[in-house]
Amino acid sequence: MQPPPKIAIIGPIMSKPTTVGVVTPQTARFESPLTLKSGATLPSYELVYETYGTLNADKSNAVLICHALSGNHHVAGYHSEHEKRPGWWDNMIGPGKPIDTERFFVIGLNNLGGCHGSTGPSSINPHTGKPFGASFPVVSVEDWVETQARLADRLGIHQFAAIVGGSLGGMQVLQWSVNHPDRLRHALVIAAAPKLTAQNIAFNDVARQAILTDPDFHGGDYYAHGVVPRRGLRIARMLGHITYLSDDAMGEKFGRMLRSGAYNFGYEVEFEIESYLRYQGDKFADSFDANTYLLMTKALDYFDPSHHHGHSTLSETMRAARARFLVISFSTDWRFSPARSREIVKSLLDNNLDVSYAEITAAHGHDAFLMEDPHYHNLVRAYMERITGEKAA
Amino acid sequence: MQPPPKIAIIGPIMSKPTTVGVVTPQTARFESPLTLKSGATLPSYELVYETYGTLNADKSNAVLICHALSGNHHVAGYHSEHEKRPGWWDNMIGPGKPIDTERFFVIGLNNLGGCHGSTGPSSINPHTGKPFGASFPVVSVEDWVETQARLADRLGIHQFAAIVGGSLGGMQVLQWSVNHPDRLRHALVIAAAPKLTAQNIAFNDVARQAILTDPDFHGGDYYAHGVVPRRGLRIARMLGHITYLSDDAMGEKFGRMLRSGAYNFGYEVEFEIESYLRYQGDKFADSFDANTYLLMTKALDYFDPSHHHGHSTLSETMRAARARFLVISFSTDWRFSPARSREIVKSLLDNNLDVSYAEITAAHGHDAFLMEDPHYHNLVRAYMERITGEKAA
User: Fold this and answer.
1) A 292-331: CB under 8 A from B
2) Lower CB count within 10 Å: N or C terminus of chain B?
3) Which residues does UniProt assign to the signal peptide (chains A, B) (predicted)?
């Protein structure tokens, strides 16, 4: 009888990327008052967050994920074995994934003002025992960066290996690099812009007006009336979706397809694109808080690091930054087009900063930053592999 | 004493372009039933129209103007000496203007379903004594062409020298060229598309949903409730305006300018672009009928001459056309981009039709078709001068 053949292991076995599994959100409570850019002060607040992977001994492998308009702390994994869909960036973050939780300690949080557990307009105001509603202050990207820095302090992290974000998340990364240049070694700014254009603001204002003029809005205090401004939030989300997708991708997926194959000559759902948008609008209106939506769009509109710093140009503002940058844009993104990312890149190069830039050819418009694309993911993977094991500066 | 010098007149004196002056709308009543594409029948209806210039003896100099989404019969001139703004295309039509009313007999009408005098949802249904409201049938571009043809019959015009329209108006011109090839010698199709894309339909559906879900809509019968779905119509118009303007033009005109120079950290009007859009929305909501808006956007969505004719390609559909074409697009129009006009041009060339095509470099996006641009206006002027005096075929 032959002995079983010996197996020589030549190199590391690459396991298939998998999930971080079941994760449990945690809550950090902050009792020291926070004065916001608006001048308003929050005496205390909570931030809900999740972590994946293990913080190493010298605390040099932490990665912060900043979320976009409708995102939250549930970035990867599942809240239970029965949850059908994983966190919103599960394709990017996990064991063996581009942001590899076997190398990095990854933190996702729900931003202040959110509606998924962090203190926001729908939270109970301890002074009144009622939801904050309209009394919750407008927060800015700078305020978020400050609260994220406090959370890092709480977790004992002085310097992040990287801070990563797409869209509004990318704006937070930019703001971090200016406000706390020594607290991040790498900045991954994806599908972002250095500030909104008039057209961007216009779309946001239409969305806000739909919510603000919904009779169920009640000046922001709809909680007390047992209603939500569902119609307005639905319109806002439908409109948002149009700007997240490219014209071509929408054409390819839906074209002029009719649900019943013929014109109905009425106002019921008829084209497939209508069905898709209304479904997205309905789903969102059932799960998201309208006041948070207002607040997030306002943070987007206000974001302009040059404005806040009293500088005249983005290049002058970025003079403060010390991080190395990976900037990524997507060819069919018309919300924050590649030209907007190139503005960021130029401002970094003007300051002799270390910057890699890639414009990914992708069909799906702004939403491409959330999708699994080999070119895009391999790029992030290669970048993150290269910075693995770096020590704190 | 010297005699006054003699003045030799070398050529015709070109008078400065001027206005057609005060015009009075007329109404044509049609008592023969009209069966619409939807299958619904209108037993009778009225069309309001204006004419400028003089119909010549052989009735060969008539030009029909087809209006777009929010247009009407008041194309040129003033309704009284006190009216501040002239008709919507006064810069194009009048004595000495590109469509010269000293050469042509120009007709503008309010389309069936409109809200400016032609029979539409806000008209009184003679059978009930109440406004049609939700019972007014959805009309299509083909239906409009039929009613326009009946108006031409009434005026004794068998063949138009030209039919001219921008945007949805251009779609009516295309439909005319297919449905009544012998009734127009020239087709001027400006800033149009052969059919809407999924993105175009998506924007229309968001606008419609804003109106349909406004609590004041009352299923379309808001007239009886003494209200109008003002909020919804306002949102629809604000959104529309974003798609009419180019990103660049909006940026140049409004940029990130703030009304008060500083952030307010609230939801009152703040950026200049917000002020502009809300003003446009308010003005429109005060003057336009929501049911007509719904109906016009549906006509846009349905427009697809190939679909209606059971043909598989636009080229096959345009085989029926006999007119000569001038097709014009504008470089920054992202609602109906130059690529959409080139689709039209290709289908005409595939049929060996006579077609001139110009892509005008213009900053103002889709709205450019309504603006006074020397290159654009000189092109239309030259085309119209060339066809002056042609006899009916």
Assistant:
1) 294, 298, 301-302, 304, 307
2) N
3) none
